[in-house]
Amino acid sequence: MDISKIFTKKGSIFLILFSALALIGMNINFSKLVGAESQFFTLFQFFGPVAGSFLGPIVGALSVLIAQLSNFFIVGNEFDLLNLLRLTPMLFAAYYFGSKKKSLGVIIPLIAIALFVLHPVGRQVWFFSLFWTIPIIVKILPKKYSDSVAAKSLGATFTAHAIGGAFWIWTVPMTAAQWIALIPIVIYERTLFASGIAVSYIAFNAALDKLVEKLKIDVKDILSIEKRFTLKA
Fold first, then answer.
1. Domain total of the chain
2. For residues 139 and 146, what is the distance between their CA atoms, to the nearest angstrom?
3. What is the pLDDT of residues 70-103, one digit of tens each?
4. Distance of alpha carbon 146 from the chain centroid
5. SS3 for 106?
6. pLDDT tens, residue by residue, 171-228
7. What 3-state DSSP class applies to 142?
8. ∠204-210-211 over CA atoms, to 5°?
9. Which domain holds residue 116?
10. What is the pTM of this model?
11. How far apart are CA 125 and CA 104, in angstroms?
12. Are 47 and 196 in contact (CB under 8 A)?
């Protein structure tokens, strides 16, 4: 998708709508991040990556960045390395969800695994990074499986987890025991996030298709709507 098209009048409408939803989602806490004070997973984790499918992987990631930066300055978060690094997982998740290319979907988790096991604590709990083989497996599956909403949702949320985990182990002091204790929590949270991403993708398809029909505007060069998930289907 041509990035310039998203900054047209029609494109800006959908960018503003997504940014508004994202800002609301980022301010509804879901669960606390272990090892950091006043840091939370939010409702945004349940739908952020879908922007990569509707707007294309590059523009989708850009829209996620714009929304996150807006929230960053509105909330007045402290301008430090950890808070800046926390912006990146959802960018890669949005790209993963919207991209049909296998290369980055495989390379990024592999880099995250390598960074994790290079850390002294990471070497002790190397098996924790096996979670990040999930997006790799999804990408190398036959197309009919890898393109399914469930598989893409699972791959996207674990891509975000891979990026976050690789940064986290180098920036937040945690023991091997704490990482091991996180394993059942990760399974629970990521299953919920993947389910939320899948449901929100289907819901957004239906809602956007209805909105486009209502407004009688042609957005085929701006917005990618999967017709099999619309109300008409």
1. 1
2. 6
3. 877 776 666 666 667 777 899 999 999 988 888 8
4. 17
5. helix
6. 888 999 999 999 999 999 999 999 999 999 998 888 887 877 776 666 666 677 777 7
7. coil
8. 85
9. 3-229
10. 0.86
11. 25
12. yes
